[in-house]
Design goal:
Elements (H helix, E strand, L loop, with lengths): L9 H14 L4 H20 L4 E11 L3 H9 L5 E8 L4 E11 H14 L2 E8 L1
Antiparallel strand pairs: 1-3, 1-4, 2-3
């Protein structure tokens, strides 16, 4: 098995350690492998989407990146039916987008949010 090096914030590392203990993983590497498998499986599932879709996109981000969210969403107003913005604890925001449109456009939108590197959480749920 290949060994790689990654950089994590202290907060993420603490969460991984807590997750490892709570769920009985043998070590941090097992947690990271499980997470990578889930991300890859989710990506494979989304790659095969085509045609017109109804879906929900969930984002969690800090308030300071609100400008990035606004910039991206304005390019996709044709597929955004509804947007709900809610303030969470501390400086976090929750965005709920109800999307309807071509799968390729929806995948582009999700890809931009993920690629921005500024979102804490991005999840597409397809109806």
């Amino acid at each position: 098995m290949t060994i790689i090096s990654i950089s994590l914030t202290d907060d993420i590392l603490n969460e991984i350690d807590k997750f490892q203990q709570e769920l009985g993983f043998s070590g941090r590497s097992e947690v990271m492998r499980a997470g990578a498998r889930m991300l890859l499986a989710d990506n494979r599932e989304k790659e095969n989407l085509e045609g017109r879709l109804n879906s929900v996109l969930l984002l969690i981000h800090t308030q300071k990146v609100e400008g990035t969210v606004t910039e991206i969403k304005h390019k996709y107003e044709d597929i955004i039916s509804t947007q709900i913005h809610n303030h969470l604890r501390e400086d976090k925001c929750l965005e709920v987008f109800i999307l309807e449109g071509d799968a390729a456009r929806i995948k582009q939108l999700v890809g931009l949010f993920r690629a921005s590197g500024k979102m804490d959480y991005v999840k597409l749920i397809v109806a």
